[in-house]
């Protein structure tokens, strides 16, 4: 089945630890995105990538890092520098241009830092 | 940077009443997209508007894109309990950028 997969669905970490969230897509999409969702805040863009080995900061990139070594994969690392990491994280992918560029979302990872 | 504002933040309606959410961008958009997120779920694409003044319909849902391509609206006629969820607009400014910026969403509650 084609789609975008995030894992794990729930993640618990101790304060001060780095944690990496996985995002894989088999839709052959060039663009991939990471969003953070907090209650009442909507979706805020962390990082996005339009091509392998290239990515751009979004609105709230501080305390996060990403890599795009393969077209299919766009992992997000939440570092210990992120002051309030507990949130719902959503990964998405889309085509670039050429008509409909709808974003397909994964099921999300709910991260809780204790 | 690009900002997309959406109002209202919450809307409670009686089943059968109409509902509208509005989206405004600080910059001219290449396109506007609308998504629906059910409680506990992830956003699901509804539609994309590209042309100035464009209007599209999906059954009871009507989507409009402003003439200046800086605002948009989603109107639901005769709401049903299945319409419950949060509706987001999202836009890109184009010019080679594919940064998809979302509004904060409108959470719709439908009272049976």
Helices, strands, pairings?
The complex is a heterodimer of chains A (114) and B (112).
Chain A: E1 4-7, E2 10-13, E3 19-25, E4 31-38, E5 42-51, E6 54-57, E7 64-66, E8 76-78, E9 87-94, E10 104-105, E11 109-113
Parallel strand pairs in A: 2-11
Antiparallel strand pairs in A: 1-3, 3-8, 4-5, 4-9, 5-6, 7-8, 9-10, 9-11
Chain B: E1 4-7, E2 10-14, E3 19-25, E4 31-37, E5 44-49, E6 55-58, E7 61-65, E8 71-76, E9 85-92, E10 101-102, E11 106-111
Structure description:
The complex is a heterodimer of chains A (114) and B (112). Chain A contains no helices and eleven strands. Chain A has strands at 4-7, 10-13, 19-25, 31-38, 42-51, 54-57, 64-66, 76-78, 87-94, 104-105, 109-113. In chain A, strands 2, 4, 5, 6, 9, 10 and 11 form a seven-stranded mixed sheet that branches. A four-stranded antiparallel sheet of chain A has the order 1-3-8-7, with no helix packed on it. The model of chain A has no long low-confidence stretch (mean pLDDT 92). In chain B, 0% of the residues lie in helices and 54% in strands. Chain B has no helices and eleven strands. Chain B has strands spanning 4-7, 10-14, 19-25, 31-37, 44-49, 55-58, 61-65, 71-76, 85-92, 101-102, 106-111. The radius of gyration of chain B is 14 Å and the shape is globular. Chains A and B meet through strand 4, strand 5, strand 9 and strand 10 of A and strand 4, strand 5, strand 9 and strand 10 of B.
